[in-house]
Amino acid sequence: MKKILIIDDNEEFKEFIRDYFSSIGYDIVLCGNAKDGVSAAVREKPDLIFLDVMMPEKTGIEIIREFQEYEEIKKVPVIVLTGTYLESNMKEIFSIEPNCRAFLAKTVDISLLEKKVFELIGK
User: Buried-most residue among 19, 79, 110, 116 (CB within 10 A)?
Assistant: First the structure.
């Protein structure tokens, strides 16, 4: 079973994504902050990571760059999700990170998100 790690401080969003993706056969691990998220990524070795842009301790860009320090997760594909309006160059900033595979709004249609997940890691 493919494993997805969700690093996001929005409980409602995490639960929605967890419920949906676990119902279609993915193993889901939830983390609500940057420190726990990086630790969980190293420990759990997920196949894919959903990463929020804005969190209390660190931003998504800081976290995705921290992933590069760990051999276990530096090549894990990351889908960056944002619920807030960002400067137009934010997508470009994330896109230069080696493991960033998509930059999407949290309002993305779930079927499109599922399609992207399937393209990246299969089932």
Answer: 79
Q: Dihedral sign for Cα 12, 16, 73, 87, please.
A: negative
- Are the C-beta atoms of 77 and 43 separated by less than 8 Å? no
Positions in the chain short of pLDDT 70: 84-88
Give how far Cα 40 sits from Cα of 8, 33, 46, 59, Å.
13, 10, 9, 17
- DSSP reduced 3-state for 4: strand
Structure tokens at 79: 């889908």
Q: Which domains does the chain have, with CATH numbers?
A: 3-121 (3.40.50.2300)
Name every residue whose Cβ is closer than 8 Å to that of residue 87 and which is 6 or more positions away in sequence: none
Alpha carbons 13 and 8: distance in angstroms, whole number: 8
